[in-house]
Amino acid sequence: MNADRVIVSGLVLALFAGASVTAGPLSPPAGPVASTGKSLSEIEPRTVIPVPTSYPVVISAPGSYVLAGPLTPPSGTSAIQFTQASGRASLDLNGFTVTGGGSATVIDATGKNLSIRNGTVVGGAIGIKGGSVIATDLILELQTLHGLDVDRQSSVRNVTIISSGTTGIRGTRDVVVENCTVNNAGTLTAGGGIVLGDNAIVRDSRVDNCKNVGIDVGAGSTIVACSVANTTGTDANGSTASGIGIRVGARSTITNSAATVNTLWGFALGTGSTITNSAAGQNNLSNDLSTGRNNPGGGFLIGTACIVQNCTADTNGGFGFRADAGAIITASTASNTRAVAGSLGVGYEFSTGGSLISSSSRANASHGVLLNGSNNTVSGGTFTGHSGASIAGVAVNGSFNRVTGVQSVNNNVGIIIFTTSATLPSGLQITGNMVGNTNTGIGVSGSFALSASNFVPGPVSPGTLTSGSGPWINIGN
Fold it and tell me: CB-based burial of residue 284 (10 Å sphere; 0-12 exposed, 13-18 middle, 19+ buried)?
């Protein structure tokens, strides 16, 4: 190794010995030193829009534009109108405020491609309307219809909407909304905070104090890390289902989101949707018969064949989770559900073919879980603190239901089976459960006779049998 280094060093010295090495000049050139870079206007040539004497300012060509000052058109007239035949126009509001009024769209790029940023738009019927819009770092206030109204393939980031008459952010399909805030938008039966079509993405956004629906998106959409609170809705007779925090169309996904203090449902999921790591609290608490409202509500309204994982429903009225056919709920919790609007206050309710796996319920006004149909399964989980008269940790009302491996403790009834006929519902499988500290372990309400198709083993906890609509008994081996 050392010999090699000596030989290489010798060769280098020999080469330099036979060559003349000349350095560049060290003195700077005479005169002022000029920049060798490009100016901002050379990188992005921008046309300055001066404060005009008449409105609207018409922009008829694509390119980059910047405001030189605030704009205040007369009521009923747009401030800026984009009419380019093709291409995208870019507008920097330069921190200024554009104020409109009356029925006009303040910045009108209907059907045009527009990038707009860095400013405030106040008043008008619609604050900003466009085709494919890239909107960033904006504030929109006091529009009578929509704050921001965009078409497909738009992107909305870091936008704040305050007080829109119908919709805060309104869009068609394939719209992305990120890091946005909407406060006070919608009517009791239309619009809402953020209302988008299919394949929408809403991420890291917050909606407060809106009407109808806080966030409402179409099929195939994604909601990530969003929160909605204080959505109100419906007229006095409750004829329209509104007052929903977050509603998604079929095959959509919700993760890491929260819906609280909404007047009907926290979340409403379309067919085949999935929700994970999300929480619903204090929804539907004002929905009682004394106010004339009669829509059932609660924490989670779960559509057909939906999947719910690691979700929490706490202190909702009516239902913690209400699931349509084929829904699967895993590792979730329903607690403190209250009885309102004639609803019992159930932790989980399933219709047909649903599954509740390794989940729990605690201290709900009515049953921890109600299988209110056929072919449902409850597997694992703990159900406790349901102490009302004839109230059970697990309630079964239908045929071919299966309850296995659950712990139902400290309830009025551990597991209750409802029947109004001379026989128990067919095909029941209630096995391997731990029932303790209850007045009735496994009880049956109604006149019945055991059927060979039923498998309802014990053991059951001893205790005093309760009365109900029919004779109650404990069933065991």
Answer: buried
Residue 337 CA to residue 328 CA, distance in Å, equals: 20
Give the C-alpha separation, 372 to 416, whole Å. 12
| Continuous segment of H or E residues that includes residue 15 | helix 2-17
408, 368 contact by CB (below 8 A): yes
Q: Cα separation of 376 and 413, whole Å?
A: 20
Burial class (CB in 10 A: 0-12, 13-18, 19+), 460: buried
CB count in 10 Å sphere of residue 378: 30
Q: Where are the domains of the chain?
A: 55-133
Q: For residue 151, what are the contacts with CB-CB under 8 A and spacing of at least 6?
A: 111, 130, 131, 132, 133, 171, 172
Residues for the chain: how many in total?
Answer: 477
pLDDT digits (tens, 9 = 90+) for 134-188: 999 999 999 999 999 999 999 999 999 999 999 999 999 999 999 999 999 998 8
Would you say 148 and 125 are in contact if contact means Cβ atoms under 8 Å apart?
Answer: no
3-state class (DSSP) for residue 16: helix
Q: Quick check: helix, strand or coil at residue 41?
A: helix
**Model confidence over 101-141: pLDDT tens digits?**
899 999 999 999 999 999 999 999 999 999 999 999 999 99
Burial class (CB in 10 A: 0-12, 13-18, 19+), 470: middle
Nearest 5°: the CA angle 232, 227, 143 is: 55
DSSP states of 43-85: HS-EEEEPPPSSSPEEE-S-EEEEESS-B-PPTTS-SEEE--S
Classify the C-alpha dihedral 83-84-87-93 as positive or negative.
negative
Phi and psi angles of residue 6, each rounded to the nearest 5 degrees, phi first = -65, -45
Q: Report the amino acid identity of residue 450.
A: L
